[in-house]
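Figure 6 in text form: structure in, sequence out.
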């Protein structure tokens, strides 16, 4: 009898998060959509998950957790600095996000990127057998697909990029452009968040490598490479049912009453990253208050920002900038008992986020560039009451699907202020109509559907 293929997931991080401190600390499966969608498939197929634990030094031993075999990959302190903070977060991340911050091009970080990719590739090949599916994730591991294929040509190899894939004029800045493209071409299926990203990749592959063919199907090294968009999504049912629960409804009412009954709540939730447009959004809110289109009597902005990549200089800078802007706006506009911006610089649990989503009259998701953006999908999934209005950046991958949101160009501060004002006064019937549409879209295309459609394409 033919053995059914196992799924080996290869990602920079293991699907574990550390909770608690000191001797109380324990590892638990992360609650993000990716983990929720992929862990059951890995478990069902008796597969494995290969990733880094997040701490420098020798990796913990290979072990089973949550019914899944985990294979930790070690990174030395130096590799964390050169491969992760350096090449991944100071070269690829900014370049792939429209070079919002100048990317650095350091040859001394390239070697470690190659070495670490090889370490992940070897770990994958050690546990995969001919016919198995190896699914590599994200910009940290763009060389791994070709390395895996070289080590074991009998595997089915897939790759999915979670961030945007830049246009030619930016990608060509990379001194290692050909190697990175050939790395990806080692996969049988190369998936992106949007059609545009897939197209950018195919064009570059034809230009800088020996690949030929159409945007959707390339030929390289005598093989076919499928190139397509697979827009990622969220666990709709989890957010929907959580938001229907008595607890979330009670907590949302408590947030509303603390803010004041006649004040509209504008909400933003992001990782504290310069791509998310937090500074532009604050400026738009400030413009709204300055123009007198809104005041602290009738609205408040709640900005929740999760600290991220704090050892990278650009992240320290955006954090300081946001701190200063919140201080300036509050200094100029707050009144006794009425703060203009509530700023929470912390990570909230998914459970704690839902009441905020449920309480928000207007959700502001305005990244300067984003592969997809899951926050906007979490927001609509958390509104079974059909309340609330979504203001969404045209430059989030999600904008391609969520046309019923109020779409804005976040770099246009006045235009964004206009859109926020319009969102605050949208007739309730129209708001409900738009929200109904958005919810239907995310319900139909949830993260489970996303994983299934990728794996269907990858299956031998
Ligand atoms: P991210 O850049 O991390 O992901 P995003 O899609 O917005 O961005 O996902 C963030 C997740 O973190 C969401 O689940 C959100 O709820 C959570 N989060 C954000 N701020 C939080 C806070 N203050 N407290 C708690 N949780 C918070 C990358 C790409 C995206 C792509 C995803 C998935 O950059 O474009 O959508 O991968 O592919």
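Output sequence:
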């Amino acid at each position: 009898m033919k053995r059914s293929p196992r799924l080996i997931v290869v990602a920079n991080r293991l699907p574990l998060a550390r909770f608690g401190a000191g001797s109380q600390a324990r590892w638990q499966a992360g609650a993000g959509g990716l983990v929720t969608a992929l862990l059951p498939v890995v478990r069902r197929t008796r597969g494995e998950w290969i990733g880094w634990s997040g701490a420098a030094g020798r990796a913990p031993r290979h072990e089973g957790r949550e019914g899944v075999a985990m294979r930790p990959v070690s990174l030395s302190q130096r590799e964390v600095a050169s491969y992760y903070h350096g090449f991944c977060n100071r070269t690829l991340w900014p370049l792939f996000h429209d070079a919002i911050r100048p990317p650095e091009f350091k040859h001394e970080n390239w070697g470690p990127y190659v070495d670490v990719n090889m370490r992940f590739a070897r770990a994958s090949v050690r546990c995969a057998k001919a016919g198995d599916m190896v699914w590599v994730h994200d910009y940290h591991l763009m060389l791994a697909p070709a390395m895996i294929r070289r080590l074991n040509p009998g595997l089915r190899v897939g790759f999915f990029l979670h961030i945007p894939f830049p246009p030619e004029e930016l990608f060509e800045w990379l001194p290692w452009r050909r190697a990175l493209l050939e790395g990806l071409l080692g996969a049988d299926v190369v998936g992106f968040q949007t059609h545009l990203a897939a197209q950018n990749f195919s064009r570059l592959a034809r230009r800088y490598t020996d690949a030929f063919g159409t945007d959707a199907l390339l030929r390289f090294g005598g093989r076919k490479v499928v190139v397509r968009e697979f827009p990622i999504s969220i666990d709709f049912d989890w957010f929907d049912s959580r938001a229907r629960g008595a607890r979330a409804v009670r907590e949302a009412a408590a947030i509303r009453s603390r803010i004041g009954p006649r004040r509209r709540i504008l909400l933003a939730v992001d990782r504290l990253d310069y791509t998310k447009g937090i500074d532009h959004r604050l400026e738009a809110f400030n413009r709204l208050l300055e123009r007198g289109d809104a005041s602290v009597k009738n609205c408040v902005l709640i900005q929740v920002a999760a600290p991220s990549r704090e050892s990278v200089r650009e992240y320290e800078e955006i954090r300081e900038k946001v701190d200063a802007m919140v201080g300036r706006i509050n200094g100029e506009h707050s009144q006794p008992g009425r703060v203009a911006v509530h700023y929470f610089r912390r990570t909230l649990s998914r459970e704690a986020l839902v009441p905020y989503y449920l309480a928000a009259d207007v959700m502001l998701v305005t990244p300067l560039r984003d592969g997809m953006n899951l926050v906007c999908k979490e927001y609509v999934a958390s509104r079974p009451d059909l309340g609330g209005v979504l203001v969404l950046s045209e430059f989030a991958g999600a904008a391609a699907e969520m046309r019923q949101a109020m779409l804005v160009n976040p770099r246009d501060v006045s235009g964004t202020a206009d859109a926020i004002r319009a969102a605050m006064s949208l007739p309730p019937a129209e708001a409900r109509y738009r929200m109904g549409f958005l919810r239907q879209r995310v319900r139909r295309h949830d993260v489970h559907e996303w994983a299934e459609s990728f794996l269907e394409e990858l299956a031998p």
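Caption detail: The radius of gyration is 23 Å.
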